[in-house]
From TrEMBL, chain A:
<dbReference type="InterPro" id="IPR012340">
    <property type="entry name" value="NA-bd_OB-fold"/>
</dbReference>
<keyword id="KW-0813">Transport</keyword>
<dbReference type="GO" id="GO:0005524">
    <property type="term" value="F:ATP binding"/>
</dbReference>
<keyword id="KW-0067">ATP-binding</keyword>
<dbReference type="InterPro" id="IPR013611">
    <property type="entry name" value="Transp-assoc_OB_typ2"/>
</dbReference>
<dbReference type="InterPro" id="IPR003593">
    <property type="entry name" value="AAA+_ATPase"/>
</dbReference>
<dbReference type="InterPro" id="IPR003439">
    <property type="entry name" value="ABC_transporter-like_ATP-bd"/>
</dbReference>
Automatic annotation (TrEMBL), chain B:
<dbReference type="InterPro" id="IPR000515">
    <property type="entry name" value="MetI-like"/>
</dbReference>
<dbReference type="Pfam" id="PF00528">
    <property type="entry name" value="BPD_transp_1"/>
</dbReference>
<feature type="transmembrane region" description="Helical">
    <location>
        <begin position="145"/>
        <end position="169"/>
    </location>
</feature>
<comment type="similarity">
    <text>Belongs to the binding-protein-dependent transport system permease family.</text>
</comment>
<feature type="transmembrane region" description="Helical">
    <location>
        <begin position="251"/>
        <end position="270"/>
    </location>
</feature>
<keyword id="KW-0472">Membrane</keyword>
<dbReference type="InterPro" id="IPR035906">
    <property type="entry name" value="MetI-like_sf"/>
</dbReference>
TrEMBL record, chain C:
<dbReference type="InterPro" id="IPR050901">
    <property type="entry name" value="BP-dep_ABC_trans_perm"/>
</dbReference>
<keyword id="KW-0812">Transmembrane</keyword>
<feature type="transmembrane region" description="Helical">
    <location>
        <begin position="119"/>
        <end position="141"/>
    </location>
</feature>
<keyword id="KW-0813">Transport</keyword>
<keyword id="KW-0472">Membrane</keyword>
<dbReference type="InterPro" id="IPR000515">
    <property type="entry name" value="MetI-like"/>
</dbReference>
<keyword id="KW-1003">Cell membrane</keyword>
Amino acid sequence: MAEISIRNVAKRFGDFTALHSIDLTVEDQEFMVLLGASGCGKTTLLRIIAGLETPSQGEVWIGGRRVDHLPPRQRGIAMVFQNYAIFPHLTVFENIAFGLRMQKLPQAEIDRRVTRTAELMHIGQLLKRYSGQLSGGQRQRVAVARALAMEPDVILMDEPLSNLDALLRLEMRAELKGVLAESKTTTIYVTHDQVEAMSLADRIAVMNQGRIVQAAEPIEVYRNPAARFVGSFIGNPPMNFLPARKADNGSWQVAGVRFDGPQAEREEIAFAIRPEDLHPAEDGLPAKVRVVEPLGPHVLATCEVEGHLFRAVLDSDIRLRRGDTVKLAPMPQRIRWFDPESEESLQPHR
Amino acid sequence: MEQRSLPYLLLLPATLFLCVFFIYPFLLVAWQAVSQDGSFTLEHFRTMADHWKFSTAFWNTILLAMAVVPLQLALALLMATLVTRMGAGRDVILYIWTIPLGISDLAAGIIWLAIFEQTGFLNSILSSLGLIDQPTTWLGYQDKATIFIAVVLAELWRATAIVLVILVAGMGLIPKEYYEAAEVFGAGPWKRFVRITLPLLRPSIQTALILRTILAFEVFAVVAALGGTNLPVLMGETYVWQFDLQDRHVAAAYALVILAISIAFTLVFLRTLRVPKEARI
Amino acid sequence: MTTATATAAATAADIRRPARLLFAATIVLLCAWVLAPIYLLTVNALSSPDQVNAFPKSFVPGFEMGSITFFLQFGGVLRALFNSILVAGITMVLAIGLGAPAGYALSRFEFRGKGTFRIMVLMTRAFPLPLLALPLAVMFIRTGLDDTAIGLAIVHTTLALPFAVLITFSLFSGIPVELEEAAWTLGCTRLQAFYKVVLPLVLPGIAASAVFAFVISWNEVFAAAVLTIENRTLTAFLLQNLDVSPLHLKFAGGAVLVVPALIFIFAVRKYLFAMWGIANR
């Protein structure tokens, strides 16, 4: 049992606040992804959980034990680093066995565990090599095997795939997901790659400027962003936003078109729609086409609606030319609304 | 807690050592130079300056540094440029050129003594070429000019290597793309050297000049080996006052003079060759 | 068209050939400039005393051990040789023992006072350090360290310590922090992580900087001459006997001084440039 609980954790470096009062609970055996742009504090949070950084305030609990005053070795964690951190003076075998030797396990047990995890990560034939003789992907496998061999309650991963080339990343991603599900550990995984986050996570915690903006299941994060930032960060291309002015009967006027919206004591709020939730229709929003990019199955049209940037992902059968004006209608159930000041979602969550 | 105090704990031995054996002795030497039996006096500086050898020693030291350091910089720049253009054999050549780095000034003096002494190799060559009949004296007490030249050659031979190492290390930090870009924009080899290498190398040149100038003011053993007492220099006079004349105060005054010109030149180089942090590679 | 291009190419090659020749000739000449004086010293050292003092001199060694054996049997030489090795050995241990922890702290921690410490270390390079020997001579007489190997080694350590700090700083900075952090997460304490992961990786570099410290001490003349009387090091011994000793003694002594330095520089050649690249900044 290893539930991780982060309570009111903050981290300041001099005048700079890297983390503002973070609260987060990760269930036992859950795969939690911390997602955000570089500098958002996600790696700092991971390092605080690992014990590599000391929080300025707050508590970290792992498996019902308060650990924020303990050094990394006493926290029952294992970690995979962005640049793998394979010890260059040790063989692959000794790298994987390193933590086991520190625990003074009997040689037979060490052999058993090293062989098992090496087989699991398909590096059984590399055990006698040194780090310098391995490819990037192989180093990655060694790093994961080294963490798994510890049979830890918690595995922490800091952008483990970001140094691999695109194809290898795809392959390792699927493999990691399988192996970690098998190992029944609690995982916290840091990445800036939203596709990676979507594909791996049980839950995603989206971070921005030292705060967790939303922590929810991937599809929830995608469909119902809790804040404008989440919508604009997740999705490629990201969500479109247009200003909406209050009209009568609780409806809102967007670029001359009326939509039913939320109750709000404001004259203007933000209307949001994902580019793939648009289709050409006579009663749509008037969009002037600026750039057309055919992408195979779809065509990405970058347009302008009343001077605002507006993208649409449309069926590639639709013929578009630069300078055309098309009418694009949003799917009504996919429209989201945001408060312009707090930037929080105005959509009552279903 | 451990995190906070650990770096200080690690620095403590070196700091204590430097305080006791670097800062404290410097205060002592300064006090020794300006005091007599516990009270302040400039008497020792007067004794020093009034001695007939002082101004000779002072100017010899300065002139030697002025002759040696610029030549070294030019020679090292040439060597460094050649090395960076070499393909195969680069390591061997670099090793050969850096050999004098490990040779002490005394050994260098003795090596050049083998060339310049009366029965030395220079006279042997000249006589075998039929240019002289009798061995010429190069390092006698009247031959100030040839002693000077011999010292310059020996210093140039011995201490150019350190400048070379600093410059080669500095050139290694300059990305190749800058040269390629300059070449694309039409800069020839000379222009590339003047417009790219020299400006980007400025921090290294600064380090090399400061280090070499300070060491040049400390020139001692080479002069002792080649010229004996015929070419007085500041460091040699310090030694003479300390031992032969047994006056520690005047020796301390000499030490302060060397220190003063060292600091003065360091400041000049820091000033004139300053590179703003934003303009560094 | 094709002929025109061919002619153009040929002209380019014609222009390039003399340039290449000049390039190669300069390199050969500079190698000769560095190597010839050492060769001449070797000729002297490997000739008998009579050959050394003969005129004109032969440019090939007589391959006689006369000078060397004379030198080694000369009173006090073996003792001076032993003292040199002893002092350099102590300097090596002190410089690394004090410098490496400081280098580690500088490379791994951000803390208040870091800048001040760095400046203090860099400052030592801007001072004529051998002059420290003057006040220390007095201090050592009071503490009983006068004329001892440890006393001289302390002065040599102030010379070698800044280099030791800067070199080890660059060595430790070259080891990714993640390696240490990985070791912590795998069950190591700070100390265990250091000797299981960091130490094996930096050991060759530490050895190189130790060798560097050894050479600095081995070559130092001034402080050695000031601080030792009975227990002369080799450099101090040679300096003291410059006026009185015969030529072949000087040359044999010079050769004995040079040989270890050559070996040492060869041993650390890989680190010379990396060291200075970092120390520049």
